[in-house]
C-alpha cells in the first residue's frame, strides 16, 4: 500500500515537472532539503510487536463503533515491516530527508519501563535511512500516548 502511494506521488511529481517545466527542484536554493514524513499511528502498524505497549489510539480504535468500519491502526501501512522498501522508494524519489515519528509506546511500553530509544525498529530505520542516502529525522508521535497515561491522575 505504501509503495503504491509513494509511486503515485512520484508519478504525479514527474507529470507536474513536465507540465510546469519552469518550476522544479532547481527553483529552490541549493541547500534546500527535500523530504517527506510520517506519523507513527497511521504508518507503523505492528501494534503488538517489538515490545510496544497499547496506546490511547489503540485502545479507542478497538471500541466497537467508535471508528468508521471499526478500522484500527493495527497494520496501518505496515511500515514497521516494510521500512526497507519504503526507504528505498525515498532514495528513488531523490528525497534528502525522512522525518518519521516513533510511537511513545515503543519507548515507554507501559509508561514505566524505558526501552532504548525506539528499540531495534528505530535503530534499523535510522541505519536504513543512512544506507538510502536519506537523512533520518526522528520525533516522538506527540499525541498518541500510552494507554497507561489515561489512568494517571494529576
Automatic annotation (TrEMBL):
A Pfam family per the record: Glyco_hydro_1
UniProt keywords, alphabetically: Hydrolase, Signal
Signal peptide stretch: 1-21
GO terms of biological process kind: carbohydrate metabolic process
Superkingdom of origin organism: Eukaryota
Annotated GO MF terms: beta-glucosidase activity
InterPro entries: GH, GH_1_N_CS, Glyco_hydro_1
Homology family: Belongs to the glycosyl hydrolase 1 family.
PANTHER family attached to this UniProt entry: BETA-GLUCOSIDASE 29, GLYCOSYL HYDROLASE
Protein name in the entry: Uncharacterized protein
Lineage of producing organism: Eukaryota, Viridiplantae, Streptophyta, Embryophyta, Tracheophyta
